[in-house]
TrEMBL record, chain A:
<feature type="transmembrane region" description="Helical">
    <location>
        <begin position="266"/>
        <end position="285"/>
    </location>
</feature>
<dbReference type="GO" id="GO:0043190">
    <property type="term" value="C:ATP-binding cassette (ABC) transporter complex"/>
</dbReference>
<keyword id="KW-0813">Transport</keyword>
<comment type="similarity">
    <text>Belongs to the ABC-2 integral membrane protein family.</text>
</comment>
<dbReference type="InterPro" id="IPR047817">
    <property type="entry name" value="ABC2_TM_bact-type"/>
</dbReference>
<dbReference type="InterPro" id="IPR051784">
    <property type="entry name" value="Nod_factor_ABC_transporter"/>
</dbReference>
<feature type="transmembrane region" description="Helical">
    <location>
        <begin position="214"/>
        <end position="235"/>
    </location>
</feature>
<feature type="transmembrane region" description="Helical">
    <location>
        <begin position="151"/>
        <end position="171"/>
    </location>
</feature>
<dbReference type="GO" id="GO:0140359">
    <property type="term" value="F:ABC-type transporter activity"/>
</dbReference>
UniProtKB/TrEMBL annotation, chain B:
<keyword id="KW-0067">ATP-binding</keyword>
<feature type="region of interest" description="Disordered">
    <location>
        <begin position="229"/>
        <end position="284"/>
    </location>
</feature>
<feature type="compositionally biased region" description="Basic and acidic residues">
    <location>
        <begin position="229"/>
        <end position="247"/>
    </location>
</feature>
<keyword id="KW-0547">Nucleotide-binding</keyword>
<dbReference type="InterPro" id="IPR003439">
    <property type="entry name" value="ABC_transporter-like_ATP-bd"/>
</dbReference>
<protein>
    <submittedName>
        <fullName>ABC-type drug export system, ATP-binding protein</fullName>
    </submittedName>
</protein>
<dbReference type="GO" id="GO:0005524">
    <property type="term" value="F:ATP binding"/>
</dbReference>
<dbReference type="InterPro" id="IPR027417">
    <property type="entry name" value="P-loop_NTPase"/>
</dbReference>
<feature type="domain" description="ABC transporter">
    <location>
        <begin position="13"/>
        <end position="244"/>
    </location>
</feature>
Length: 289, 284
């Protein structure tokens, strides 16, 4: 090549080398490591980007997953609105139900996220990521937020369906931002729960079985379909321990303006997500072995 | 370019007394190895020899329960992050993400190795170019052939400019033309960068042709080590001394010689065969 040769950057053994033509090839200089707190957001960003790229290439999942929440709102919501069987404090039942269905459809995605992790393990993708300068907790946090991004897109779809069905939701951007945060935190928790179980049972089939066994109790044992006050005492206890209830409470408060406990809701969601990340990270090594 | 590295005192990789057992199975049983900077080092052995297990200890995927592993002086048990920054790793199975394009697959690795946004596009394009995938870069990886996936994985490993490239059976399951092409790319990269390459394979002919030095591994241990030429002429001399008049021995003969008759009986168990098959099939 005609370019003037560039002097080697360092003469030490650390130098990887130069291209034969004397120009520094980008592939010859290792990138400068991000350190400290800047590493975590970078990894989370990388995982979220991958999730979005996959969704862009294959949107079928997005469409098929919209069917179930649409049916819940359309059939269950419309029917019970007419029956007026559930006391919702004056809110039409379908309005009351919509935030619950947003939370439920987000949870359904997250609770099976561990299957994707096992698939990535079997396909060698996870293995390779574990040989990058990414601490396990950062990898899990990245995956948890990636699940959150996926769930968020799902939530947008459900919100649009609900709006089409005439549910009076808020369009206040600040409140919608709060909704997004609650959806992402809830999904982070449920996906970590799923990845934790994946780290324990290690196979797709078993995780699938457990996932199916726990989704309905989590759903029915929450305030997604009916107010906590209607539940028998033991179910109220379940609901109190169920992060889904706090997520629904926050969504309902923000979207409909019903009475809420936002501070407590976000506190519980943040703590649950953090605990989930800790648990899933500690078990990730088992998947790699 | 390699002179700079050859004068370096620190070996690219040292394993001393490395052991790893899965329950009763002693997969790696006292591995002694020293890889010089800038060389292409072949770790050869039959199914179940412990090659992959050794690689997984070196790449920090498995702990180092006994013995010591150092990559350019960094302890693989204690300085995991430092070791990972120096490594490029292509596992035995085809491991590109089928739901992403070739370029996106490489971009992911640029991101997790902290390539800045400003540099990313150029570096990724360069890595894809180095393995001749520029034209196919924006196709989904699930449309790639086995050989293309292997080259894509090579690009993923190269994008972070590793100093030690670890390739576990890079040519398994590929047709002869794809095999040659993968080796030619490995060689070109080595010549251009002076990178150290550790590669495992079953194919003695490939090792003979492309590796500077090889180690013959069997039942978790190294049984012979040297340049392919040295190992072959050693055996030829020995045979001549015994008065035999066979044709020139191949690396495979050397291997049969050092591994003894045990080779035929213990040619790997069912799990090995299955994982080899899985590797041979298309990317998930
Ligand atoms: N995850 C595992 N659990 C139990 N045993 C294992 C596991 N991985 C490997 N082994 C056993 O350890 C031994 C070495 O296996 P390893 O995969 O390291 O061999 P290899 O030389 O890479 O073989 P191949 O050429 O088939 O890839 C074998 O006996 C194998 O059955
Ligand atoms: Mg192997």
């Amino acid at each position: 090549m005609s370019e003037a040769p560039v002097a080697p950057r360092h003469g030490s053994a650390e130098t990887v080398g130069l291209a034969p033509d004397g120009r520094p090839d980008p592939l010859l200089t290792p990138p400068r490591p991000r350190t400290g707190w800047r590493m975590l957001p970078a990894r989370v960003g990388a995982m979220c980007v991958v999730e979005l790229q996959k969704l862009r290439h294959d949107r079928t999942e997005l469409y098929t997953r919209a069917v179930q929440p649409a049916l819940w709102l359309l059939i269950f919501g419309e029917t019970f609105t007419r029956l007026k069987a559930i006391p919702t404090g004056g809110t039409p039942y379908i309005d009351y139900l919509a935030p619950g269905i947003i939370a439920q459809s987000a949870m359904f995605i997250a609770i099976f996220y561990g299957i994707q992790i096992i698939w990535e393990r079997d396909a060698g993708i996870l293995t390779k990521l574990l040989v990058t300068p990414t601490p396990r907790a950062a990898l899990i946090t990245g995956k948890a937020f990636a699940a959150g991004v996926k769930a968020l897109i799902q939530a947008v779809v459900v919100i649009v369906i609900a709006a089409l069905l005439g549910v009076a939701l808020t369009w206040n951007p600040l409140r919608l931002l709060g909704v997004a945060v609650a959806v992402i935190l809830g999904s982070a928790f449920f996906s970590c729960l799923s990845m934790t179980i994946a780290g324990i049972v290690l196979t797709r089939d078993r995780l699938m079985g457990i996932g199916q066994a726990i989704t309905m109790p989590l759903f029915f044992g929450s305030n997604a379909l009916y107010p906590v006050a209607l539940m028998p005492g033991w179910l109220q206890a379940v609901s109190t321990a169920n992060p889904l209830s706090y997520q629904v409470d926050a969504l309902r408060g923000l979207l409909l303006g019903t009475p809420h406990h936002l501070a407590l809701d976000y506190l519980v969601l943040v703590l649950a997500a953090a605990a989930g990340i800790a648990a899933a990270s500690s078990l990730l090594g088992r998947l790699a072995r | 370019m390699t002179d700079v590295r050859e004068t370096t005192a620190v070996p690219a990789l040292v394993c001393e007394g490395l052991r790893y057992a899965f329950g009763e199975t002693k997969a790696v049983d006292g591995l002694e190895l020293s890889v010089r900077p800038g060389e292409v080092f072949g770790l050869l052995g039959p199914n179940g020899a412990g090659k992959t297990t050794a690689i997984r200890c070196i790449t920090t995927l498995l702990p180092v329960p006994a013995g010591m592993v150092r990559v350019f002086g960094h302890d693989a048990a204690k300085e995991r992050m430092a070791v990972r920054r120096l490594l490029g790793y292509v596992p035995q199975q085809l491991s590109a993400d089928a739901g992403l394009t070739g370029r996106e697959n490489v971009e992911l690795f640029a991101r997790v190795f902290d390539v800045t946004r400003r540099e990313r596009a150029a570096r990724v394009a360069r890595a894809l170019e180095a393995v001749d995938l520029t034209a196919a870069a924006d196709r989904l990886a699930k449309t790639y052939s086995g050989g293309m996936v292997r080259r894509l994985e090579l690009a993923q490993a190269l994008v972070s400019a590793p100093r030690l490239l670890m390739l576990d059976e890079p040519t398994i399951g590929l047709d002869p033309i794809a095999r040659t092409s993968v080796w030619e790319h490995i060689n070109a990269v080595r010549t251009a960068t002076g990178m150290t390459v550790l590669v495992t394979t079953h194919y003695m002919d490939e090792a003979d042709q492309y590796c500077d030095r090889v180690a013959l591994m069997h039942r978790g241990r190294i049984h012979a080590l040297g340049t392919p030429e040295e190992l072959r002429s050693e055996l030829a001399d020995r045979r001549r001394a015994e008065g035999k008049t066979d044709p020139d021995p191949t690396l495979e003969d050397v291997f049969r010689d050092v591994a003894g008759s045990g080779l035929d009986e213990q040619g790997g168990d069912f799990r090995d065969v299955r994982s080899t098959r899985r590797t041979a099939s298309r990317v998930g």
